Amino acid sequence: MTIRLSKSLTVLAIAFFASLVAFGNVTDYGSNFAFVHHVFLMDTIFPDSSIKYRAIESEALHHAGYIFIIALETLTALFCWIGGLRLLAAVRRPAQVFNAAKKWAVVGLTLGFLTWQVGFMSIGGEWFGMWMSDQWNGVSSAFRFFITIIAVLIYLVLPDTDDAV
User: Fold this and answer.
1) Nearest to 120 by CA among 102, 134, 138
2) Cys-Cys crosslink for 80: which of 15, 23, 70, 89, Cβ 3.0 to 4.6 Å?
3) Residue in 82, 73, 75, 96 with CA at minimum distance from that of residue 8
């Protein structure tokens, strides 16, 4: 039961984190939008970079991208809350029931991993060259986030048995 409770709580911790991130992005839209705006503009990457042709100058697309990011963060939070609460409800149930209850948590954690690894690390960091910016570089934060999420996902999907601690 201890391991099951631990798995439930780690999923709920990610739900809480993603909720805070989404909440912050909604309630402090302007300053957080500035981050996305500058990453898309690529205006703070190395001046002689040959990838500046990738920049997106449309502010409407900046807002659309930012709203999409907020939606992904919100869905991550929602699915992890649902998953974590379903896991808690199944903590004392047979292993087959607890393992089946992992579905929404797996969906939420996978979406969170994809949001920060693909969205921030791959697209923002590599495609838009965010790693070159001293001011608007979120690569290290994104890395911390998706590594934490993937660790919880790996821990969660380890099969649970009826004789587990």
Assistant:
1) 138
2) 15
3) 82
Distance CA 16, CA 147 (A): 16
pLDDT confidence of residue 163:
73
Which distant-in-sequence residues (6+ apart) come within 8 Å of 136 by Cβ? 35, 38, 39, 44, 130
Q: pTM of the full predicted structure? A: 0.93
- C-alpha 3, offset from chain centre: 24
Measured distance CA(18)–CA(98) in Å, rounded: 23
> What is the domain partition of the chain in residue ranges?
2-157
Query: What is the identity of the amino acid at 21?
Result: V
Regions of the chain short of the pLDDT cut 50: none
Q: How far apart are CA 5 and CA 131, in angstroms?
A: 38
